[in-house]
Amino acid sequence: MTDSAAPSSEVVLETSRLLLRPWRVAEAVVQRELWTERDPRVPPHRRIDADGNPTVAELEDSIRNNQLWSTGLLAVERKASRDVIGYCGLVDSGRGPKGEPELAFELLRRVWRQGYATEASLAVLEWARSSGYERLWATVWDWNTASRRVLAKVGFTAERKEVDAVHGTNLYTTKRL
């Protein structure tokens, strides 16, 4: 599968409760909220730094410039309330095998434990399967039990572990489509 099959501005996925679609500039505030809610065990480059970066303005620019947030990671919007609650999608982080993107998802804490991450992930997996991908992978910190449960529910299995003395063990999981 080529990189051209990665989610783009034309991709919109729908489930019974959710729309997964490209980000809009005004939704950078949701991205910023996700950054502020991250567990302190998450590596520093994925958290707000001492200078307050990334700022809402920086996140707005990343959406405008069609960077990662606005292409591979689709906004997850609840259809009933029309609010964006996080992201889910496929990314090429460069850590996995060529041609095998990584499933990634993150939702605001206020919507945890309602099945949204599983529902969004299943929609992305179906899109990936119909796009010709044969296998996906995902990484998750061993201490992130909620994300580990989601990955297990959608059929990912552990393949290997990478120990980080500071942040914990990172589990590499895969799923054949």
Task: Describe the protein's architecture and organization.
The protein has 177 residues and is of the alpha+beta class. It contains four helices and eight strands; from the N terminus they run E-E-H-H-E-E-E-H-E-H-E-E. It has helices at residues 28-37, 56-64, 116-130, 145-153; strands at residues 13-14, 18-21, 73-78, 84-91, 102-107, 135-141, 157-164, 168-176. The strands form two sheets. It has a five-stranded antiparallel sheet, sandwiched between helices. A three-stranded antiparallel sheet has the order 6-8-7. The longest helix is centred in the last third of the chain and has 15 residues, at 116-130. 29% of the residues are buried.
